[in-house]
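Record 1 of the preview.
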Amino acid sequence: MEGFLGQLRPERPLRLREQPWAAGGKPATPFAHLGLPEPESLANVREGQVCAPCGDELDWLKVAVAPVDDRTSRVYLRGAD
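->
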């Protein structure tokens, strides 16, 4: 996982969010339509900005990495153009 994240070249080290965010608004780019929990609803998620501006037509890209089990993590990517 660290190798993959390193290749994304985050602008700053990813921060660890230990607790889920309080219930609030609807995410701008929901993952529920894929049958996945929203990263904001999970605990122990590492997250941060990968690039802003990214170049070409992509304005920003954010990553969230959520543990699934002891050996697996799920990577969420959100971008805007």
